[in-house]
Design a protein that fits this description.
Length: 386
């Protein structure tokens, strides 16, 4: 059973979703997803965010268990994405005297998502505003575009708890036995990656607070070694590589481009590159490929030519890289084509649209299949990247 006790006054009331097929309609979550929600019990009671509609029933039961017959005074809405705000209407209708707390953009979005009359029941807050619950005081900190415009985080001053919205969250149910870094990194780059500048701004504001506990809307409650997680967020949001290594991402039709990619992996390992990750863009999780692209300082793209363009999986990968602000990396290219190889040029053009990308030379061209005569150029590329 989950530990729902964060402190005497702060309780976890969220739920795990293990039936979900795709989070946000696109990300595989083999270990499910946690939708976190909390309640603060004081003279006044505040519920901190609601839950996805698929878990409304379980969440209401959890909440009732902690309320023990009392009625919430406030619902703080830190983020309107439906994985958290899906049950706002249900709660507002269940407790007609409860005040909903948000900022101006929150209420605009509530009006768009729900037919719900909150007249006389809203409290609009802005940067730095506080709300006393008795011995607990909530301080609101705006975090726009992490990763929606209405996002705000809440610092509870007496227990020094940061209710961090999506920040510091991860994929995976709360009872998933897995490393935080891997699924937090995949979550960060795919969902928040585009908004590094905004995360940097929030980290600067957070640096002025004495934070003892981080309660994210996803993943475990963080109570120890907080500097570790904050450092990771600082690295990720500044687009600096986390590790030395090379990701080789290939899009291969019949396996010939794949063979060249695997040969290069061998050559890079021989040249002493500490970590070489290889991913098949047609078959492996593209969200993980994106995560590894940001994790390492170097990358190789290997693609067949198809219909005069790139094999579509590479085109899609480059689209995601651009959308998430991929930058500050060195990238090598391998193209393959049987009569008019074009993928190398097209990949280079796509990379030119990203900031501070260095294309390693030479670009290797394979004609149909890798042959001994191609090894020289592959070795040169390995040396340029080592
Ligand atoms: Fe967890 Fe952006 O919602």
């Amino acid at each position: 059973m989950k530990d729902t006790y964060i402190s005497e006054a702060i309780r976890y009331v969220g739920a795990d979703d293990k039936e979900i097929d795709l989070f946000e309609g696109q990300y595989v979550v083999p270990n499910g997803m946690a939708y976190n929600s909390y309640v603060i019990l004081d003279e006044k009671i505040a519920v901190m965010d609601t839950i996805d509609v698929h878990k409304t029933g379980e969440w209401l039961e959890n909440l009732a268990r902690e309320l023990q017959g009392r009625t919430p005074d406030y619902l703080v809405v830190s983020h309107m994405e439906p994985d958290h705000a899906g049950s706002v209407k249900v709660l507002a209708e269940k407790y007609p005297k409860m005040t909903v707390v948000g900022n101006a953009k929150t209420f605009q979005l509530i009006g768009q998502f729900f037919e719900l009359d909150l007249t006389g029941r809203t409290l609009t807050v802005k940067e730095g505003d506080t709300l006393s619950l008795g011995s607990h005081t909530l301080q609101f900190i705006m975090a726009p575009m992490i990763h929606w415009p209405e996002v705000m985080v809440t610092y509870e001053q007496s227990e020094k708890v940061l209710f961090a919205a999506d920040a510091f969250g991860k994929f995976g149910a709360l009872d998933a036995e897995e490393d935080w870094d891997c699924e937090a990194r995949r979550y960060y780059f795919n969902i928040v990656g585009k908004y590094g500048a905004q995360v940097q701004m929030l980290l600067k504001k957070a640096a002025n607070l004495d934070i003892q506990t981080i309660c994210s809307l996803h993943g475990p409650i963080l109570k120890e070694n907080l500097g570790y997680y904050i450092d990771k967020y600082n690295t990720w949001s500044s687009y600096e590589p986390e590790d030395q290594g090379v990701l080789i991402a290939y899009a291969s039709i019949y396996g010939n481009t794949k063979a060249a990619a695997l040969k290069l992996a061998e050559l890079l390992k021989e040249a002493g590159v500490p970590r070489v990750a290889v991913t098949d863009l047609a078959r492996d999780d593209m969200a993980e490929a994106l995560e590894d692209a940001f994790r390492y300082d170097r990358m190789v793209l290997a693609a067949s030519t198809y219909d005069g363009g790139m094999f579509p999986f590479m085109e899609e990968f480059l689209h995601h890289l651009k959308a998430k602000n991929y930058q500050k990396r060195t990238v090598g290219l391998i193209e393959n084509g049987s009569w008019a190889p074009a993928s190398g040029k097209l990949m280079r053009v796509a990379l030119e649209g990203m900031k501070n990308i260095t294309v390693a030379e030479p670009v290797v061209t394979i004609k149909s299949s890798m042959k001994d005569s191609d090894l020289g150029k592959l070795k040169e590329l390995a040396e340029a990247l080592a």
